[in-house]
Design brief:
The protein contains 13 helices and no strands. The protein is mostly helical. Helix 4 runs antiparallel to helix 10. The longest helix is centred in the C-terminal third of the chain and has 42 residues. The chain is flat and about 75 Å long.
Length: 291
């Protein structure tokens, strides 16, 4: 059995993909190294692929910050609940819209598209939340984004690709539409459900502006707001930070802490993505085929 020889095209592909992978991974790894490096290592010039001494001091400082633990729990709670709600509403809206015999189907689709392209704006949104009595309430961070029209369109298109014969057979056997949705459509739509869930989770995890507007109680705020407050406080008091070591040491420690906050804030999403990646690509590709 002869081995397949690599062609010039294969070599170029390996070189280009390898170079692109390094360009993507190096900044991430550099942030990890900087977050664990000491001031002397961080201040030296050159490329640092490994810290001289692994120092978790920056992480200790971040986790000692006031309200960080509560903010982390609030962000996890918001991400889990918000993602579940978005997935449920997307399923319940996209399944009827995927049926070509739904009365006024095109009008409903146009209605959702108008809502997607034209939002009310920040001030009307704030007045609505205030009149609903949701100011300083965690629901103000979840309910306004409970229905995502773009995700509905993607999931509707995906469901339109599923063989209608399966649904017709279930109807002949006496199954109702909710039974078909729960036992047939949802299992077959796992890739696009994973895609929508990942989009929703990343959106909720990174969101901070709505928390700044609607939340006043520090115990109800989210991680990104606390990180932002931490950065602002440290910039203002950088001469005192670092145990009185002066401006130079303070700046170095600030860079360490900034790297640590980046790793802490993106860590859970990075851990989730590899498990959803195989569904993510399939869900996007199939969901985007039909308009």
């Amino acid at each position: 059995m002869s081995k397949k020889r690599m062609t010039l095209f294969d070599v170029l592909n390996v070189f280009l993909i390898g170079s692109f992978s390094i360009a993507v991974l190096y900044p991430f790894w550099q942030t990890v190294v900087l977050s664990f490096s000491g001031p002397s290592s961080a201040s030296s010039l050159g490329v640092h692929l490994w810290p001289d001494h692994w120092m978790p001091d920056a992480y200790k400082f971040v986790f000692s910050y006031q309200d960080i633990a509560a903010a982390y729990l609030n962000t996890i709670l918001r991400t889990v609940v918000g993602t579940v709600i978005i997935v449920c509403t997307t399923l319940l809206v996209s399944y009827p819209l995927s049926k070509r015999d739904l009365p006024y189907r095109n009008y409903f689709t146009i209605f959702f598209l108008i809502a997607m392209f034209f939002s009310g704006g920040m001030i009307p949104d704030y007045l609505l939340i205030k009149n609903l009595g949701l100011l300083d309430n965690r629901l103000a961070l979840i309910l306004p984004g409970a229905v995502n029209v773009f995700s509905i369109i993607i999931m509707r298109n995906y469901m339109m690709t599923i063989d209608k014969g399966i649904e017709e057979s279930a109807l002949i056997d006496g199954a109702g539409y909710f039974t078909i949705l729960g036992k047939i459509m949802i299992p077959l739509a796992k890739p696009v459900i994973a895609t929508v869930a990942l989009w929703a989770a990343v959106g909720h995890w990174n969101a901070w502006f709505d928390a700044m507007i609607y939340i006043r109680d520090p115990s109800k705020t989210v991680l990104q707001m606390v990180v932002r407050s931490m950065m602002v406080d440290m910039d203002l008091s950088q001469t005192q930070f670092g145990g009185g070591g002066g401006m130079t040491n303070a700046n170095l420690l600030l860079s360490n802490v900034r790297a640590a906050t980046v790793m802490i804030s993106i860590g859970p999403i990075i851990l989730i993505y590899p498990f959803a990646q195989k569904y993510f690509i399939k869900g996007i590709m199939i969901g985007s085929l039909k308009g």
